[in-house]
Design a protein that fits this description.
heterodimer; A: 283 residues; alpha/beta; TIM Barrel; 8-stranded parallel β-sheet; 8 strands; B: 142 residues; alpha+beta; Jelly Rolls; 5-stranded antiparallel β-sheet; 3-stranded antiparallel β-sheet; 3 helices; 10 strands; 25% helix
Chain lengths: 283, 142
């Protein structure tokens, strides 16, 4: 089972509204020159790349941008197009007055599998008490959180909110809350290594390509910046494959993982096994 | 007179050759142009329009030799973050193969028909698939 844990579907045809809103989405997400993808073609691309499932992320920055880039309801619409291939993570702007209700609805009525939060874009510190009701709902419904961590390509995203150590208080206060530091928290990958090593509830994903090819970038992070043995021996069960598609091609990013030449059992965990555990889908 | 259409093609692999000769012949017939020129132009920078003999051995040779000339697994200056896309460039081989193979082809139209050499076929060539691609079909004349 290969699962890409980090895919943004804002520009899929199924949720296209009009050109003006499309441009607004591009502006908020820092994207350009991008067509709208048909989900059926996306599935063909997944098949070609040998990827079984995409974890799709909603984005809600409504108190800053006066619109929801991708609502939980629209995300659910996409998931329902191919529920055997798509997993949906809701989003909520923590500063919404109805934030708790939005999260509760996402987990109950909409049946979404987790929550996507972007501290740098949404401008909150992960250990701010405003987050407590949201974290408690995630624990109540056994839903994990995908946190953006480290550098973001998106505009107006100060990294101070998303450095890996900013999440340590959450890991300590809520040991039963599973969360992922996406993008390996780059460039603070050693801090991310400490977090996944020390805290059983903390994971990280590989959705990082800040320069070079995936093969070069993953080599630099996992074989040079970190000891070449750490992913194999220290935290083989904590790193999940993620691409940040469509910013980076999911198939190319998977190939980057494969070129690390990990032990087969480690590669299988990174490409999907760890995601199954993170999602709470283990038997 | 002038007739312009855009046709789209789904490509099925990173490298893909799609025969589009029949689409070209049909377009010319329906264009209403009796005598003039037919032009095919790809709308992308990692694809090409190729005129070649349609043989599987040649298709294999084209793929292998292009890969030798522009290998995928070497360093390119293009592999860095591109603010205009919001993405990191990873498809330089596609750009260079496109440059080598060209972005268009031109044929005469006579008596409302496309005129081609007996060994010639038209391919849409993908070097950065799989994607949905667009091609201009244009007939010019009277």
């Amino acid at each position: 089972m290969v699962i890409d844990m980090h895919v943004h579907p804002e520009f899929w045809e199924a949720v296209y509204q009009d050109d003006a809103f499309n441009e607004k989405r591009k502006e908020i997400m820092g994207r350009d020159k991008l067509g709208n993808a048909d989900y059926r073609f996306v599935i063909k691309q997944m098949d070609y790349a040998g990827i079984d499932k995409f974890c799709l992320l909603a984005t809600d920055t409504s108190t800053k941008d006066n619109c929801v880039v991708l609502t939980n309801e629209d995300l659910k619409k996409i998931v329902d197009l191919a529920p055997d291939r798509f997993i949906g993570f809701a989003s909520v702007d923590p500063f919404r007055k109805d934030a708790a209700a939005v999260v509760e609805k996402a987990f109950t009525e909409l049946g979404l599998m987790g929550l996507n939060l972007h501290p740098a874009k949404q401008k909150f510190y992960p250990d701010d008490e405003i987050m407590d009701p949201i974290y408690k709902l995630c624990i109540k419904y056994n839903k994990p959180i995908m946190f953006h961590a480290g550098t973001s390509w998106e505009p107006n995203t100060p990294a101070k909110y998303a450095q890996p150590l900013a999440f340590e208080g959450v890991a300590i206060k809520y040991p039963e809350l599973r969360f992922c530091l996406s993008h390996m928290g780059w460039p603070w990958v050693a801090d991310t290594a400490m977090m996944v090593l020390k805290y059983p509830n903390v994971y990280a994903d590989t959705s990082m390509l800040y320069s070079d090819r995936p093969i070069d970038f993953f080599h630099q992070v996992f074989k040079v910046d970190l000891s070449p043995l750490w992913l194999e021996n220290a935290f083989p069960e904590k790193i999940m494959f993620g691409s940040n598609s469509p910013r980076f091609g999911s198939g190319d990013m998977k190939e980057g993982i494969e070129t690390l030449k990990l032990r087969p059992r480690t590669e299988a965990k990174v490409l999907g096994g760890n995601a199954v555990k993170f999602l709470g889908l283990e038997d | 007179m002038m007739k312009l259409e855009t046709k789209t093609y789904e490509t099925h692999a990173e490298f893909d050759l799609i025969l589009i000769t029949e689409d070209a012949r049909e377009f010319v017939k329906k264009s209403g142009v009796k005598d003039g020129l037919f032009v095919l132009i790809t709308q992308h920078t990692t694809t090409s329009i190729m005129v070649q003999e349609s043989l599987p051995c040649l298709e294999g040779d084209i793929e292998e030799k292009l890969e030798e000339i522009v290998p995928k697994n070497v360093q390119y200056a293009h592999n860095h973050f591109l603010p205009t896309y919001g993405a990191t460039g990873g498809n330089c081989p596609g750009h260079l193969k496109s440059m080598l193979c060209g972005n268009h082809c031109v044929f005469p139209i006579q008596n409302g028909e496309l005129v081609m050499g007996h060994a010639q076929d038209i391919y849409f060539a993908e070097f950065d698939g799989m994607q949905v691609r667009s091609v201009f079909f244009e007939a010019l004349g009277e």
